[in-house]
Protein 1
Amino acid sequence: MDKTKSSVVKGIPGSPGIAIGKVFLIEEDFPVVLKKIPKSMIKKEISRLHNALSQVREEMYLEKHKILKVLGKEHAPLADVYLRILDDPILKKDVANRISEEGINAEHALSATIEKVVQSFEKIEDEYFNERKNDIQEVGKRILRHLMGSQRKYINEANADSTIVAHNLTPADTVALYEHKVSAFAIDIGSKTAHASLLAQGLEIPAVVGLKNITAIANNGDDVIVDGNQGLVIVNPDDETLENYRKEHEIEQQELYELKKLRNVAAETIDGHRVTLTGNIDSIKEVKSILDSGAEGVGLFRTEFLYMNRDKLPSEEEQYEIYSSIAQKVLPYSLTIRTIDLGGDKLAKFGFDDIVAEDNPFLGLRSLRLCLKYPEVFVVQLKAILRASAKGKIKVMFPMVTGLAEFRQAKKIFEETKEVLRKNIQDFDENIKLGAMIETPSAALTADAIAREADFLSIGTNDLIQYTLAVDRVNENVAFMYEPLHLSILRLLRHIIEATHSAAKLVGMCGEMAGDPAFTTILMGLGLDEFSVPPIAVPKIKKIIRSSSIADSKKLVQEIFGTDDYNTVVNLLRKPHQKG
């Protein structure tokens, strides 16, 4: 077969799976030329800018309506963030001033202004602000398209064989991905936690993000392989590579078919040990994926999306409707809600003027400590959760607990909130369970004390590993040092689980480690009671549990703790510890 040169591009796994298809390229190249505008034409040039802004605003309102209709109101903030950027004085006033003062065309004035804003964002080492930088660039491109009279290629022209290749994906694109069931996508920018990645995981389509220059490499109609498992995109693969991936894809599809048969069976080992297997979600739209996967309810509902990309805090009623709806949908199983897990910078935009910029936000005012500083925000969420508990089986857990005193302080507010509801004769579950997330070394080392006062514990391995090893897992310079099998991590996990069981309580895990099949056997051997994982991982984890014996898993753990050599640990995990 005659093919052009093959290219392999490494990125970040956005969503697992393998897809083979044709490139559907959404090009974003805008050659902006500087033009001098005579004074007599300045007003007309500014009018061009205002017309373009109006046209883009109209488009965005239509897109928001479609998002609400197709994906639901929990995804509306994806469109709201673009509308807020569009209404920022920078895009109307500052660009117009530049046109007037420098006597230049609207296209160049806009590009220069956007570039200046982006440069200021690049100085902030925070993933949230990096995502906002991408959003600002995207809005700028949309305005430029109208100024230049160019048309963007839209996903609704794609088909099921298409692999979307783009610099970024807009809120409107997310709707099209859902409607047209495209096979996969690959984009230049983004992270594993960007909205495009999270949506792909929810829709269970393969995706690779953070590819940097895939749009410059791929051409429309090229053959392409998207390997969301390894974070690889192969453009114009040779015959051998294509055939190998076709076989791998067939095996993957057959495995998925077989895994679906496990939907209605328990996560129980061959020697009768029962494990609870639940799912992680970010929005109500993912509940169907949870139920279809065979999970036993929701082990982690991240509530942050309710606070993102909006002008005002979510009301008690808005939160109540969402929590109660999910709780009812997952019955007879339970819904575990994690309270606000945000950094202080996210609340600053709601008018909390005393919040200052922090040099190290990961060690600053965030999560539970943020809620304790601003109980008025915390109590609104707690009221909504408690009221919703009358509609289903709800559990609550506090994130980023650093010790017993902090947990007690939060628990006191929780009990006071209950008393307010009693006085107002509002129903709630009097026996609602309250837990703590163990994701800091200080909490891990005092897990025995926390477990005595909490109803359950849940281990958040993402931050626990990051803080214990002093490794930023998204920093490419040190990410290779982020190692779940580090002896310190394994010892901490053993301590947390044993301490929780000594207090006669249950302990789960909702971090990425729980959803990685490579660690399932060792976590069972350590005594983990509950695995809370992404919906797509539920069948795989269940299969491993049902193919394993708890006796062999415990034996494996004994062998692992009998050595302090990392390579020996890895080799032990590679040994067969499952039924064939």
Protein 2
Amino acid sequence: MKILLAACLFIFSINAFAQTSADLVLLNGKIWTVNDRQSEVEAVAVVGNRIAAVGSTKDIRRWVGANTKVIDLKGKRVVPGFNDAHVHFLDGGAGLASVQLRDAASPEEFRRRIGEFAAKLPKGRWVLNGNWDHENWKPANLPTRQLIDAVTPDNPVFINRLDGHMALVNSLALKLAGITRDTKDPDGGTIVRDASGEPTGVLKDAAMNFVYKVLPDPTEAEMIESVKAAMRYAAENGVTSVQDMSASPAVLGVYQTLLQRGELTVRISGHQPLSEWQRLASVGIRANFGNDKLKVGGLKGFADGSLGSTTALFFAPYLDDPKTSGLPSDEMFPESKMRDRILAADKAGLQLAIHAIGDKANQTILNFFAEAERQNGARDRRFRIEHAQHLRMEEIKRFSSQRVIASMQPYHVIDDGRWAENRIGAERAKGTYAFRSLLDAGAVLAFGSDWFVAPMEPLMGIYGAVTRRTLDGKRPSGWVPEQKITVAEAVKAFTLGSAFASFDETVKGSIEVGKLADFAVLSADIFSINPVEIEKAKVVMTVFDGRVIFERHPEPKR
């Protein structure tokens, strides 16, 4: 009886599509479906928020009715809506309204921008975000509190490096946080000090927690405005799904408010801190809980820091700082704490995504994942390593054999490639952002941006994965060029690969009948143009849930 009922429902769904005119039709396009059985079509029909048909323009015209919205693509390229597998969505949105330091080309410009921004704020308001990168400077020395104290006398400053693993504070913020020369470095963190032992104002990883404890919490209204700004930015770049690695209960509450208002224009899979795994497990939540717009059940942990902050954990020391091989995160003091959390959270049925940058950090987490499977038994876990940035060849094979998803951010290739070999040398760099080797080994790639750390611009990520040309223009043939992948592989990693990483490959990630109607229309055919031209391509239209939510209007001629 159950089989008969299921068959009847399936036939009914087909007939419902067949007997209904479409709400939206896209015609005369080059539509890349990411479906190997039918990789490219000309047209697609949408009923409600689902894809009803794909095929030729001639066939899809039959779906046009009196109330159908028809879009003539005029030969434009269409791909599934991009799914960014790793973002910090609220923080990114908040950063859009803060001081912009990513491209500050010198300490002087850095100081000027901070001073001008602080001058517009009321006395006592914190200066936050920033996303600075001292690697843009010559020499690439870290900034200090003395650089900015004079221009921020009335405003505490806590501005992060673009990787989020290091921040600069001014003297006022140090005072508010209670950090002095006598403050000891916490486990997993470093208070950078000058030759006399005084804090310079730079805090690495867990040392930033001293400041987090005294930061005022944003109001719900402020968070809603930040998320709305983030959603606008997502729509401008064809991003219709994100996997938020910083989805605290307060942030999830904001998402739920926007969902209830009908204002959520991006699908969100929220990850909470691994340290709080019992909060989800105690109420019976497991991986992939929720609906097609908002889900929870994922956890995010940290094994180490970042390459730019020299806190990524390696087997061998840094070339430019031989005193250190990196720093385990505070969650790894001791390692058994991380291991025990992974085992317990996995046993509870939650999904694990662990940040690992350095080769030793990656090996350690792969070992813990293997132990979890041995102890807790086989099931469809979809373990993830976030970044999987620097790998030894023996670990690359393990991503496939252990079925661990490599959740990676290809924009970092063209950014870090400017200076990374100064840190780790050419030999270790061979396993850096090893897209080609991971795919050839049979691993699943899920691409994202790590926004706010990097721009939430999938087209630039695709450009990075395909060309590996560094942003400074000094590597026109690509950095570690043997790790390049094809445009089709990069698009798949930004769509179906990312959908798989959040258990969503049956409902999104490709343009197939029955899947959610999320599309990105591009200004150029990234499959046929010279790959180096992809960085100039733009998203000209974004369709989310069967509705056009963004159109890029041509710039007026001058």
Protein 3
Amino acid sequence: MLIAPFLDRVKNLFPWLAIALALIGGYTLWSLYRFDRGPDWLLAYLFKRNFTWEAMNQIRFFIAVSHLAAPALLFGAAFAMATRIVRRDEHSSSGAVGMVYALNTCGALLGSFAAGFILLPSIGMERSLLTIALLALGVGLGSLLLSARALMVLRLAALAALVAVVAGLVKNPPHWNKSMLSSGAFFGPFNFVQDGRITLRERILADRLLVYHEGLSSTVSVHQGDNEEKFFCVDGKTEADQSPRSMILQRMIGHLALLFHSNAKSAVNIGLGAGVSFGALGQHPLDHLEVVEIEPAVQIATRAWGALNHHILDQTNAIITINDGFNHLFSTPMKYDVIAGDPFEPVMAGAAHLYTVDYFTLARERLNDDGIMGQYLPLYEMSLEDYLTIVRSFVKVFPNTALFYTGFDTILVGFKGEVALNAETLRRNFEIPAVKASLAGVGFTTPEMILGMFVADLSQDSGFAGSGPVNTDELPIIEFSAPKSALRYTTDENQAALLAHFTPIPAAWLEGLSQEDAARLQAEHEAVRLMLEAAVLRGQGDTEKAFELLAKANEISPSNPVVKNELVAMLTVSASALRRSGQPEEAARQFQTALQLDPDDFGSLVQLVQLAMSAGQVQYAQEVLNHAWQQYPESPVLMGLVGKFMFTVGGQQSEGLDLLQRAVKIQPGNETLWTDLKTLATMANNQTLIAQAEENLTRLHHFIATGRYR
């Protein structure tokens, strides 16, 4: 439409066609230099507009248009010009359009094949776009240079442009910041704002990128934070992390349904991810152990989690099926005793089809008669209405369902037959050595702790989800409603719903238990209820009362890992706030309390060392530091602290500087480490290290200011 009036007035369209092709290549090439600035733009826009859903849609649209609008218009113009050129030779409008359209279609097919099966798998996105940009640019400029129909001025301009492009690429080739692209700013923008400012670049510098791989359908990455916890991302969205909360959830997704099955021989896990859930499945004595994963590249990231997933990919009976979970259940003739559903959260585009009635129906059909399905269902980034819609959809297919709470998420356990929450079966499966060790690894040392996480028997509580719509393939309401909650903290309202329907321990579970075991089970269950109540109060702003309830829950069940994790989290947040507000003594007391609950809590150890050193408590600081160093011997943060301690207190200047140099080599983006190295190097009058520290600090400051390394 835009180019049509121009076509009728120009006799020689060939040079203009060449210019259009050159502009397509040139624009694509230019966009490569700003591609990884998207997270910066997104956060800046959201920050100015208070992180609203409307603002998110606007900035997504603007970013997409900024990359695609110009090439799309130029492609349309090139097609129109090519058609007009051929028409003048063919003297047939329909014939010209048909010929150009046919060739264009063949090119589109060839391009799709080359991009998807050759370029992307072999050289990745950045170099694929660079190749295509240079191809279009070369064809356009080359046509101008070689065409007899092009004016001399156009030929000279083409030659100058070609020289400029080559010189620019040689001097400053495009180079994407992989940490920026995999930061997940789109999925968790609040995580990159602190004290009223955007901290994306500081966060990127603090994390270490261990794995980055562009797969056929998504990009997978594994990062390690300065707290030594790993996290696994797909397209920047964190899908698994090493925090105690997440590890409990991931292990339970794999274990829970199997623990209640009397004689499971086959199981499948939908979604590989970090492999922790699949690894939990693998600890049970199964004849058939399978996982379904849509992205082959995920396996690369899974191996980076080997120590946490029981090295499941090395297990000889582990079968990895590359397929979409829905398609697998639709097409496989296999019947399973247990299906563990561990898909993306519903907020992820396309993931909601693994939370539909149709999907759950397929799963039920693939279960043996006494089969059980365990389905992960988060409490965050999803409104209460959406949460209940998915519960309603699951219960429609599995009327006999029990709901379990893992501290920050839930797991639906659906029985194809009657509800079989048999405490004796769970106790027998719990005693399998590999299973017991796996559960002990996340703090569950007794069967009663697992039974204590029970919230409700939904076969008996039809009012939990209430009446309302269900999520289906024909009416996928979650696909469109869940993303609206991406910028809202919804966990509190969903936890309140769990608390409102919290069910006493079924009498059948208590039958046959000794008086001591029955009392322990009741205590574990009450502790979880108190924790839910504390979470609701915290959401209402009553932090003091929430803390009291958590402390009471810990008294009732001092070994419960779910309660302990929440209490430690609340203590560390409170202690950090006290330290920032100038109350170091009270902060230190709360960090000490947190360490009594979890002696290996990294944040508490580091902050307590810093507080003790600031207060001149050298001996105590050394005791805490020695313990921390034993637990995290590869931590660059602790290397830096040990190096400072050795230099300033121990009189071991050379050893202290060596440790700091080792620390900055592991984590070159840590500004504090470089600053400490510069300070100690100045004290030691080591000019070489001073210059090195100053140079790297300048680079870091430049990156924080501009988003680019100098």
Protein 4
Amino acid sequence: MYNMSKPIADEKNNTEQSKKKKDLRRFKYGSAAVVITVLVIVIVVIFNLIAAYLVKRTPMKLDLTGDKRYELSDETINYLKNDLSQDVEMIVTCSKEDFESISSEMEFMYLYYYGLQLDIPYDMLPIILEKYEMYANQGKGSITVRYVDLEKDPQAVAKYTEIYGSEIEERSIIVSSGDRVRVIDQTGMGSMITADSSNQTSISMVFAGESTITSEIMNVTDANPIRVAFASKLNSTDIYNTSYADAASGLRDKLLSKNGYFCTDVDIALDDISTADYDMIVIPMPSRDFDEKIIEKLSSFLYNDGMYDRDVVFISDPLTTNLPNIYEFLADWSIELQSGYVLSDSEKYMGNDPFTIQAKPVSSDETGTIEEDNSRAFAAPYVQEVKILDRNNENITNPVLSTYDTAFSYEFATNKADTNDTAERNIGVISKREIQTDTNIESLAYADSNLLVLGSGRMTEAQLLDYTNLYSNANVLLTILNNMTKKETNTVIIPEKALQSAVIAPSANQNKVIKIFVIVVIPAVVAVIGLVVLLRRRNR
């Protein structure tokens, strides 16, 4: 008898087997799609992680701007990679986007007050700070940069404020290492991009911020900072004439404080300068003579109970001549200030000012090697000759600055110039006294005290120290001071960077959009495509 249910059963079995095969095929293709999608996402994530790491270590961003505004100087890069051995933290008390607001505000100010439409790109600073992090992390030390909002989180800078000893305002940069804290305040931030007044034909901007930032990093990492008593007062009044105010502040703030010398203003007559709190005394352009007590203070400071290891910097005011006690003190160190000015022929004075002449550094075993920079001039305005006296004493006296051989003397009292007597004339001299500190003849260890005399305070006027692309004053004077004080931490003068008026460069917001697109958007698109492929295969 024919079984009618068998064909039906066979058809049912075939249908079930076909369904199982189809389900197996779907599972196999679906699983493959899932695996492929997961692998692609993992690869993209790993690629982004590697890229993020490499960005911290190597320059992944190409600076295609004509003025190379986003790159650091060779001097800073070399310091960060080879000399920085400590960890430094930099706290910026505003957001990255706020730098664009600073740019807009500065550009509006120049337009409103001066009618000048200028590009003042403060939005370059966040990228510059990233470069500091990147290059420092390639060496023995490190730099980390973070941004804080003082309105939302005022306690974020509390510990720095306590060490710093003063309030820290918005739009500042805190630079710290260990228990050392320095702050670039709003004024310092504002002077990072300034007008180049040396250009007489057009107005352009220069970036001087790198010098400020690098100097502050050096300051907080200096193991043995030089402590300076800056004699700004004499019996409670300014020690110098008001015409020297700019030169005095330039010497203290732009040359010394900016390069690892910790300055404290003192009254040379009333304050105690003999303590171990100071390594050096600076006497800027005194307009009155010192009494015998002050002279004794200076002598005792340099002698240091027979231990020496102290220094004094004396800077003259050529218009102040009635200083018998000071002159006697200098003569005891084999130094004499000549009256009048030193002038030079037209080839060696600066611009149209015959009273500002070009000078040059002088190297010796005692002062170290000071290279003359032929591309930048050392400007010596209203300078007097510093003569070395031939005396049979313990002083070792050497010139550190001199004029060229076309220099001659000019007596302003008689308005006469001796143009027939031309020669190189010293305008900066160091006199040294030393003592052997080790009785072992083989070691020959010595300690010394030095007196540096400069023939004019106007050598340290702010513009001569600021415009490092034109003048070598900052670099030469700093080298002389570092050699004299045996300053261990190297200091470098970072040249200003001329900024072009128009460049093709992404703004901070554009950079942010690019980052979001690469790190978030592309991986998200890949993930969505993978899910679509998976769902389509599952529904087949």
